[in-house]
Structure formats: structure tokens, C-alpha cells
């Protein structure tokens, strides 16, 4: 993997994962009332949890 | 991306955000109680409380329902009879001075099984009404809706440009890093973190909200596009003097699609019907097609079935965009998530505003360099050197 692809993935890996999760949750609840709702709660809840974690759990030095 | 491009995207992000931020804050704040409007309605006692009766209790005749409701408003004309999407135990019957009037309308909630009047809900007063009006049209009717739609479009531009700018701003930082040493860096990092994580949700809710602002126009276009052809045989005829049975109209509509249930009935002359027809809107029973509607036009003078034109794509788009905006399709957990994501969006908007204000007042910033034209002096030069993304 080239340096450029490497840094691309480092930058976008988590935004992509969370974005795709959110999208799947927004759609799953639309097509199914059983598993679809459960998946939506999980896949929209995870991004919310990630935000709360990074916003509230203090870190000594986050920069590189 | 070179520094000129970063500057251009920064300009787009700054101005698209600045123009819409104050309205978006208003929409986020008023939207918050609207997510829970049923629950708040129960607390305020404005929700219709339906008596528990046996499930297989037969439905009351709709003509009787209409007669009971009309008796409360003898000088007005019926506009709609509708069910809540998840509760067909009662009818909302709406009356107006004319079939298209928008002010002074009255609603009567009638038990769909016993034809007893349950409530006369006021949809034009109280806290939730103010929230709804501020959220939907700023008390300015169609112009207000279209204006908010335009602000929604600017929000989408701000979101896209924000995503483009995420790369140069985050190149040196790990995902989720929130620097604690300077307040401005902390709020910039929070802005980036919450912005990128809420991206898909905020874009979806923004885009579907914008589509909803066009609802009135879309319905008018539907009348012109689809109903005008069906009305050709009625050319030169007066609308029926006496309306035929609503129950008959409803029965022939439901007989056409036995696996569907009634969503609402639009009376002759309303925006959802024609001057000559009852239009019965049916919805499906599956989660997805319960959001879609099947219109059935029944002659309001003779009760003859006129047509059931398929739902055009633009109405399908409008109807599908509604749950995606309201967040009312995944139970209480989804409503709570909607509220949390809404609050996260408020923080993104507020921090964006803070970052801009801090930039405008370099005297209050910790570093003199904050007065330069780039919003984050540490990130941009780095990006300009290494940037071929």
C-alpha cells in the first residue's frame, strides 16, 4: 500500500465505517419492523456513543 | 488539494454556514420537542385518548361519523377524514370555511367504532403549535416553507464543503482527537468530530426536510399532472350538489385493494382531490409500503369508481422522505437517537459559530496568527506542502 493510500485510510477509515453504519440503520428501520429496528438502534447508537466517548473522556495529548 | 482549493472550500463552507446557521439552530431547537410530539401531547392532555374496546368491534358507518362531526360545525364544509398511521380506532375529521381554507379549520376526533365524539383537538394553539409553525414555515405560509427549504439547501452545501475540509484539517490528528490545550483547538476538534460522525444523519434529515418544504407544490403539481386528465369527462359540469355516501366511496376503494387500509379521505374540492371526487388514500400493511399511498378517486355524486392512478415518483419521494425526516419509524429508541443526533448537530452549529466569532476577533484569540485568512493556521500550511489528495 502506497503512503498516499495509507494516509487516506488512516484519515477516512472511521468516518466511512460510521457513515455506512448510519446509512444502513436509517434504511433498515424503513423496510423491517423487527430486526430492522434493532439494527437501526445499534447502528445509529454506535456513532452517538463514539461522539460521547471522544468528547467526554479526556486524553492527555491527542495530537501526534 | 492545494492551498487555493482549501481557501475556496473554506469560503464556501464559511458563507453557506453563516447564512443558514441561525435558522438551522432554530430548526434543531424546535425539532427537538416535535420528535416527541405524541408523548408531549399525552402529558399536556392534548392527545386523543381512545377507549379500549374489543379488537373485532365493527367499524361505525362513515356517514354516521361524518354526520356526528358535522353537527358540531354545521356552517363549515368537510375537508378530510384521516387516521393516524398507527391508530385506526378513531377518525380525525377536519372542517373548513371552504375546501381549501388554511385558517380557522376545525378538527373533531370521532371514535371509528362507536361514532362517539372523543375530542375537539386544537391544532392552531399552544406550545406544540408554535414549535411546529416555527419549524415548518416561520408563520409565513408557502414563502416561509420555501425559504426554510433554501436554508436547508445551504446546510447541505455546508455539510459537503465541511467534509471536503475534513481532510486538510485532520491530516495531523487521529480520528476523534480533541486537543485540550487551547479552547479554540478544542472546539475546532469537536466541530470536526461531531460534524463528520453526524454527517450521514444530518445530510439525510437536511435533504428530506428540504424535500418536505416542497410538499404543497408537489401536491399541486400532482393535481395538474394526473387529475386534470381524469377530469376531462367532467368538463363544464358543476360539482355535485348533494354528496353521495362517504361509506360507499370508502367501501369501493378498499374493495379495490383488500390488503390495504385507509389512510385518509379527501373530500371534493380539497387540494388532495378534485371538485367531483372523494379521493380515498390507502396505505399498505408492510413497514415500507405503509408509508406509501394509493389514491382511489370515487365520483362524489354517483359513488362510481373513477380511477386509481399509480403514485407518481415525486409523491413517492415525498412520502418516503417524511419518516426519514421525522425519525418516527423505529420506536422510542429511534426517537431518542434522533434527539441525541439533533443535539450533536446543535453543538456542531454552535461550535462553528464560535470558531467564526473567535476568528473575527483576533484580540481575544490566544495566538496573533489567528487573524490571518486561514481558519486553522496550523493545519493549512502543512496541507499545502504535502497535499496531492
Care to describe what's here?
- The complex is a heterodimer of chains A (64) and B (389).
- By secondary structure, chain A is mainly alpha-helical.
- Chain A has one domain (3-56).
- Chain A is 80% helix and 0% strand.
- Chain A is built from 2 helices and no strands.
- Chain B is α+β, with helices and mostly antiparallel strands.
- Chain B folds into 2 domains: 3-38 and 132-214 and 331-386, no CATH class; 57-127 and 215-323, no CATH class.
- Chain B has helices at 3-35, 37-44, 62-72, 127-136, 141-170, 183-213, 215-230, 246-256, 313-326, 331-360, 379-386, and strands spanning 77-84, 87-96, 106-111, 117-119, 261-266, 277-283, 293-299, 305-307.
- Chain B has an 8-stranded antiparallel sheet, with helices on one face.
- In chain B, a hairpin with a 2-residue loop joins strand 1 and strand 2.
- In chain B, helix 1 crosses helix 5.
- The longest helix of chain B has 33 residues, at 3-35.
- Chain B is elongated and about 75 Å long.
- Chain B starts with a helix and ends with a helix.
- The chains are: A mainly alpha (64), B alpha+beta (389).
- The A-B interface holds A 4, 7-8, 11-15, 18-19, 22-23, 26, 29-33, 36-37, 40-41, 44-45, 47-48, 50-51, 53-55, 58-59, 61-64 and B 166-167, 170-180, 189-190, 193-194, 196-201, 204, 287-288, 291, 320, 323-324, 329-331, 333-334, 337, 340-341, 344, 388-389.
- Oligomerization status of the protein chains: heterodimer
The ordered H/E elements of chain B are: HHHEEEEHHHHHEEEEHHH
Biggest sheet of chain B: strands, sense, closure? Answer: 8 strands, antiparallel
Distance between the termini of chain B: 5 Å
Supply the helix-strand structural class of chain A: mainly alpha
Cα gyration radius of chain B (Å): 26 Å
Beta-strand content estimate of chain B: 5-15%
Q: What is the number of helices of chain A?
A: 2
